[in-house]
Amino acid sequence: EKQGFKHFMLKEIYEQPSVVRTCLESYVNSEWTAASSTNPINLGLPDDLYTDLEQIHIVACGTSWHASLVGKHLLEQLAQVPSQVHYASEFRYALPPLTPNTLLIGVTQSGETADTLSAIHSEKDRRASLSAAYQPRLLGITNRLQSTLTRLVDSVIDTHAGIEIGVAATKTFIAQLMAFYCLSLDLAYRRQTVSPTRLEELLKQLWQLPTQLEALLETQEKRIEELAHEFVETQDFIFLGRGINFPIALEGALKLKEISYIHAEGYPAGEMKHGPIALLDEKVPVVAIAMPGSVYEKVLSNAQEAKARDARLIGVMPPSDPHAAEVFNDLLPVPEVDELLSPLLTVIPLQFLAYHIAARRGLDVDQPRNLAKSVTVE
Ligand code: F6R
């Protein structure tokens, strides 16, 4: 079943290019150009989900919560819809103010996470007796169509990841990201918040991703494995990112915690100097995601600050800027893409890093202690 891979997690990491390809083939018109007069995205969702949309709330847990943070960034930056992400376990105890024409999105790979389901129930219950504009609009994002989530919501985006066996989410995460890219571009087209030429450019780059991901997996695993072996005894890790890559820093830290039991924190790079920098010394490696775009220079200068505290610096970045590459002790190279699409690539080396540290420590990568694939208690 593992098809020659040592663990399901590794097999699922390698399934990611095909998951991305399947999503694109299912939802995106590959012939679309800026001259086309139709929507390039077809998620098969009912029109009333989009009508006069004013607000989006997203509820999720764990890795799905990280995907949702990327989703919020896309929904706001591409489609200009005010969006908030909530920990599902917190949502029902402090419900956001009631607003009309509001979409609630529940994101869960298992479709069975109790916290996420009960957050959706609370929203449904409190809106049930209100007028039409306040009626709940409920959308699920999942790879499990036969799940409790699917029965609870009005519509679902199938992320096409299939079943994931490794407890640490990898391919389902990238698939959730793809669902958010498609939804955001769909909304952006309908609301005309992105120019046709910009849309064409983003779609062109999205279609290149499966091949880029394949090349990244093939060329980087060995290097990252060797690097990972140097951290088998490490006790603390810091992951830094900004903007759309801040959630990827959180995800890199969560993967490492879950399967290697090493303490790790993800932090917005600019916040380091407001406290956590006090933790740094030569024993705490810092992984910084530094992708060209709006926050590139800032992340590099934040990384320099960490280096000045003797931290070993690992950069997730394109190797194209030799000067920047000199800042880092080690590089985890990823191809340069539009900043908005970069999370689909930057997460890959972090998955490998966590996997190979845990595997080297001889741990049960697919079944980490204290964790279950689906968390059905609140
Ligand atoms: C991460 C992980 C957990 C889940 C979380 C939500 O690798 O396994 O953090 O992401 O329990 O699970 P779902 O997506 O099933 O709601």
From TrEMBL:
Single GO cellular component term: cytosol
Enzyme Commission number(s) from the entry: 2.6.1.16
Recorded GO MF terms: carbohydrate derivative binding; glutamine-fructose-6-phosphate transaminase (isomerizing) activity
Keyword Repeat among record annotations: yes
Primary residence: cytoplasm
Span of domain SIS: 45-193, 227-368
Protein name, as recorded: Glutamine--fructose-6-phosphate aminotransferase [isomerizing]
